[in-house]
Amino acid sequence: MTVNHHLRAHRSDENLAREGQLAWRIAEIAVDPVEVEQAVVDMIINRVIDNAAVAAASITRAPVSAARQQALDHPVSVGGKGASIFGCNVERRTSPEWAAWANGVAVRELDYHDTFLAAEYSHPGDNIPPIVAVAQHVGADGHALVRGLATGYEIQVDLVRAISLHKHKIDHVAHLGPSAAAGIGTLLGLDTETIYQAVGQALHTTTATRQSRKGEISTWKAHAPAFAGKMAVEAVDRAMRGETSPSPIYEGEDGVIAWMLDGPDASYEVPLPTAGEPKRGILDTYTKEHSAEYQAQAWIDLARKLHSESPAAMDPANVESIVLHTSHHTHYVIGSGANDPQKYDPTASRETLDHSIPYIFAVALQDGGWHHVDSYAPSRAGREDTVALWHKITTAEDAEWTRRYHSEDPNEKAFGGRVVITMTDGTVLEDEIAVADAHPLGARPFVREDYIRKFRLLAEPVLEEAEIERFLDLAERLPELTVEEVRELTIVAKPGVLAAAPAPKGLF
């Protein structure tokens, strides 16, 4: 049965024992030999497929190409056989921390993989690249890999449930460093002490401000989680060599809680599985049908519904105003409450438009859907009628939608809201949506066939059909894979695809 770990800041003279520290409890969960339930195995397979899908779609984009070139410029480290890089031939390997980096950027670039939102925001699939990279490097089989991934997801979800980072303008990847380190610890069968040190180091090196997701959002948005995964791999390496980390990292007088989060008088209740309790965290996460910020998923689905039911609302000449009544987060992070003029700028970057619900709703309403490339094209963003409609859309915080957003009851937790469209003739159109269609409680919940369809859609332009089938065969047999098959768990681009992508030169 899940129990809450009471977490608070401690003065140095309180001498908090290791056994009372959150990092130690995380390590204890990581070493628990409990087996992974079949439902969790199935969902892990879904998410491995999902990650590969979005990586394929982003494989020629500039940030992914830059990260891939950095990885290719580093040889395989001497302690293992290295790890594969998305797009490259299976035989072309690099050191695992650089594979975690390159593949992490590929997965994160389009903001198109899985999500979990609670006290904090997260993309738990960011755990997969570093854990897979280490598995390939050391020669782990599919069974060990599944166990490692189950831990990564569990710790990520548990931290996200309890500890808000964004409230203090800390980027959400501060929960990713510890979860990835714990998952790698499970994969390798490390002891509690070693994982404890790795978790502390991973957290210490991955706390950064949320400016990466504010204002004129840069390409670092995709690199930040990859950097956390890379740091987790390096933290485990250091801990395995007997090196120690800042302690207590969460609870210390000068630690994360006291100085980066709610302060020296703060406390949290972190829900953690007990010994022998299966790790089910992944089952509470959800993926994206659309390539956009998760809070936009339900709004895209509502917009495409209105596209069919209320076509007059697509023409800005007919519309006086559109107000999206929604949660605090949607209003202040991706809505007009952010007070970011870039969210209404037709020349803004893709990363910025991805975090603009007024833009996204306007395009989805006019187009009746969303496309991971076409919907962000400069020509699409700059279309005169779209700009006119876009600038009539605002958001407003609604207390009830905020309450539902933060609800711990999965049956009422909601990420959407209510739209009020006031037409120029005085008529008013209203509709609402609680969760995205692809959500487990949505109109069309994603199942294995949907993940495979998404993979095929995104992979077909850059992978041969035989390669698509080869990868799917491996992914669907994940817990049974041999060491060599785990090393082949990657996607190889068609001849010429990577050659046509940018190949920037840098220091390495």
From TrEMBL:
<dbReference type="InterPro" id="IPR036148">
    <property type="entry name" value="MmgE/PrpD_sf"/>
</dbReference>
<feature type="domain" description="MmgE/PrpD N-terminal">
    <location>
        <begin position="21"/>
        <end position="268"/>
    </location>
</feature>
<dbReference type="InterPro" id="IPR005656">
    <property type="entry name" value="MmgE_PrpD"/>
</dbReference>
<comment type="similarity">
    <text>Belongs to the PrpD family.</text>
</comment>
<dbReference type="Pfam" id="PF19305">
    <property type="entry name" value="MmgE_PrpD_C"/>
</dbReference>
<dbReference type="InterPro" id="IPR042183">
    <property type="entry name" value="MmgE/PrpD_sf_1"/>
</dbReference>
<dbReference type="InterPro" id="IPR045337">
    <property type="entry name" value="MmgE_PrpD_C"/>
</dbReference>
<dbReference type="InterPro" id="IPR045336">
    <property type="entry name" value="MmgE_PrpD_N"/>
</dbReference>
<dbReference type="Pfam" id="PF03972">
    <property type="entry name" value="MmgE_PrpD_N"/>
</dbReference>
<dbReference type="InterPro" id="IPR042188">
    <property type="entry name" value="MmgE/PrpD_sf_2"/>
</dbReference>
<protein>
    <submittedName>
        <fullName>MmgE/PrpD family protein</fullName>
    </submittedName>
</protein>
<feature type="domain" description="MmgE/PrpD C-terminal">
    <location>
        <begin position="290"/>
        <end position="477"/>
    </location>
</feature>
